Amino acid sequence: MKVSELIDKAKKTAFSIELLPPLKGNSIQQIFRTIDRLKEFDPKFINITTHHSENIYKEDVQGVYRKMNVRRRPGSVAIAAAIQNRYGIRAIPHIISRGFTREETEYALIDLSFLGVTDLLLLRGDIKKLDAEQRAMDSHPYATGLQEQVNNFNKGIGFDGSSFTPPEEPFSYGMACYPEKHEESPNMESEIFYTKMKVDNGADYLVTQMFFDNRKYFEFVDRCRAAGITVPIIPGIKPIHLRNQLTVLPKIFGSDIPEELAEALRECTSDEDAKEVGVEWCIQQCKELVQSGVPSIHFYTLMATESVHRVAREIY
User: Fold this and answer.
1) What percentage of the chain's residues is helix, strand, coil (to nearest 5)?
2) Where are the domains of the chain?
3) Rg (Cα) of the chain, in Å, rounded?
4) How far apart are the C-alpha atoms of 32 and 130, rounded to whole Å?
5) Cβ atoms 156, 149 nearer than 8 A
6) By CB count within 10 A, which of 90, 240, 254, 286 is most buried?
C-alpha cells in the first residue's frame, strides 16, 4: 500500500518519523530504541536518511597526507529492511542523487526490490561536503533526474538503456518541497514550478522541509493547489531542543524562526530551558495543523526523540 493510501486510510492525522542511521560501528539497537519509544503513536511509515561518503585527507606514519574516501554512516537499504521485518511498519529509505553514481543507485533499487522495500523518498542530497571529484561523478545533478531513473526502472529500463524484467511491485515515492523556498530557487514562483514538475512526473506525495511558522505552510499549500498540485503535502516538523538552534537551523535549513519563538529562546539560560520552549511551541504548532486537517505530520527525530514523544502524547 502506497504512503498516500496509508494516509488516506487513517481515520485522523497520521504520524510518521524520520531516523538517522547510526554512526559506523554502532549498533542498530539505538534505531530500535527510538522506534520502541514512539511506536505507541502508530507510525504509518518511517523514513531513514542516506549519507554519501566524503573525501578526506589523513596523515600517514611518514607524515604524508593521503586522500581517503570515508563513509561515516551505513546506507539505508539494510536498515529499512530490518525495520520493515521487525515491526511491519512501512520503511522508506532516502535515495539521493548526488554522491552516488547512477549504477550504484540502480543496484540499490535492485536490492530494495528483492527485500520488498518499495517506497522511497527521492532527494538531491547535501552537496556542500562534496568535493570537485565527487561533484563530477556520473550521478544526477538534481532529484528530477533521479526520479526519471526510478520511473525507468519501474518500466524495466536500466540506467544504461538496457532492458530487464520490470519489478513485480513498482516503486512508489515521495519527494521534498520547501514552503520557505529552496535556497537555490530565485523566487517562490520557481519553487512552485519545480514542485509541480515533481508531481507531474510521478511523485505520490510531498514532505516539507522543517518549518516553525504554520502560515508559511498554509500559504505554500494554497499556492500548490492553485497550480494544480493535488497530492498530500505532509508538514515536516522538528521540536527545537538546543539554544544554538536559534541560529543553526536557519543557517542549515533556511527555516525562519518566528520572532515570538526567537524571543523565548533568547531568554533561555540552558538547553533544558530551550527544550521546554521547543516542546511547547511544537505542541501548539501541531495542534493548529491537526485542526486544519493536514493528512499527516512527519517528525524529524534527530536528537529529539523525547521531545517528539512529549509532543505526540499531546496530539495523538
Assistant:
1) 45, 20, 40
2) 3-177
3) 20
4) 30
5) no
6) 240
169-205 tens-digit pLDDT: 999 999 999 999 888 889 999 999 999 999 999 999 9
Percent of the chain whose predicted confidence (pLDDT) is above 70: 89
Residue 68 grid cell = 581517503
Residue 286, amino acid: C
Q: Residue 109: is its pLDDT beyond 70? A: yes
C-alpha 267: how far from chain center? 31
- CA–CA distance, 183 with 173 (Å, rounded to integer): 23
Phi, psi of 190 (to 5 degrees): -65, -40
Element (H, E) at 268: none
Is there a contact between 174 and 203 (Cβ–Cβ < 8 Å)?
yes
Residue 116, by phi and psi: left (phi above 0), alpha (psi -120 to 50) or beta?
left
Q: pLDDT tens digits, residue range 63-78?
A: 555 555 555 556 788 8
The grid cell for 260 is 515570538
Cell numbers for 237: 516538523
